[in-house]
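Reopening this ticket.

The earlier resolution said the output was attached, but the attachment link was broken on my side. Pasting everything inline this time so it's all in one place.
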Amino acid sequence: MDLWKMMETLKSDKYEWVDLSQPVSAKTRHYWLFGDMEAVDILSYDKEGVSAREYKMVSQYGTHIDPPSHFVRGARALHEIRLRECALPLCVVDVSAKAAANNDYVLTVDDLREWEGRHGKIPADSFVAMRTDWHKREGAAFFNKDANGGVHYPGWTIAALEFLCKERNVCAIGHEPPDTDAPGAKLSDNPWASELFILQQDRYQIEMLTNLDKLPATGAVIFVGFPSVVDAPGFTVRCYAVFEKQ
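Inline output:
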């Protein structure tokens, strides 16, 4: 009954619930190499009196989870993400002003230490999200291609990810852009070097998060929901956060 009472409190006006995921449709933005979601009615109200639909979309569609197996052969796949990893303390590191001034901005260890100077040490087994306000960009501005076709959006440095994994032992990370790496920063010959690193550490990540600007830097809890598809290298997710109003 204690859990029921806790739930009543969480659903009271004292707490705010924020959706961190894009709605999923053929119009949902996604990595440009992937096709739009397709939907076909298998059963219909008019013919069978019931609705059933077949969907076709890539595993990394819209707001999605990347388990370690997305990049690492033999690593944990989607169905091996533990339930306890799906509800985590949430730390939001705001570099939105820096990303606005430099679309190729990469989050650094100094950013993390500056955050800790204001909010305290990042706890172990937490989820660290990089806020860039990138989710607010519409249309072509989201991928932000230049005249030569190069894309420009913010990302993470490997040093920052190494700090989070080895010094703070976080469980997962997330961000609003479509990738972990900032392609325009050209930090490595491997365009997915940062993403490879974080997944090699047996952590998962969430990409294309939304509404991080509606959350406090500390105090929220993130919930990550997805189907337990066996051996899947990723899937669209429904993420949301709960925090106490001030």
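Reporter confirms the inline version is readable. Residues 109-119 form the longest helix (11 residues). The chain has a mean pLDDT of 97.
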